[in-house]
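Posted in: Structural Biology > Protein-Ligand Complexes

Title: Requesting predicted complex, iron/sulfur cluster in pocket

I'd be grateful if someone could produce the 3D structure tokens for the following input. Sequence and ligand are given below.
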Amino acid sequence: MGLEESLPAGIALTSVEKVLGLARKYSQWPVTMGLACCAIEMMAAGTPRFDMARFGLEVFRASPRHADMMIVSGRVSHKMAPIIRRVYDSMPEPKWVISMGACASSGGVFNNYAVVQGCDHIVPVDVYLPGCPPRPEALIHAVLVLREQIGKEPLGVHRREIARRAEQAALEATPTHQMKGLLA
Ligand code: SF4
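-- Reply #1 --
Done. Output follows.
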């Protein structure tokens, strides 16, 4: 059935939230940032074999001010943690984060004093991608999952309230320099 038959009066009603959600859903620009071995898989996702460009994602932005998606690809050392947060803070709103691999999500096999036991102590994470390392196809799938979330995301005060609660939870968590993982 064509649009004219399904909408004989030519009128369609929807919410601003839904229209903007649809527009945002298909326009992520990732920031250029690689941390460890997972970053090699992230780079591979941009090559012709996996072809991230099919989804309009291949242009990794060199400046965080041009980007709205951060892929934390690899373990986060305590030394890198403030730098990751600075990159995140430099990105304009709205912005999203994918935690790529076991190390980024939980410290992985690096259960020691040098590695942050999960990047969600540094930045609010939208999608956790398991694996060591996850394959490029899995990263592309994580982006598609994120897009589904973005399409349904609330705007304005609702979105700010969600971000405020996520930040509050992060502030109340154990400080990263006090984490000892399984050594506690
Ligand atoms: S999850 Fe595996 S591949 Fe990724 S950074 Fe950790 S050790 Fe490297």
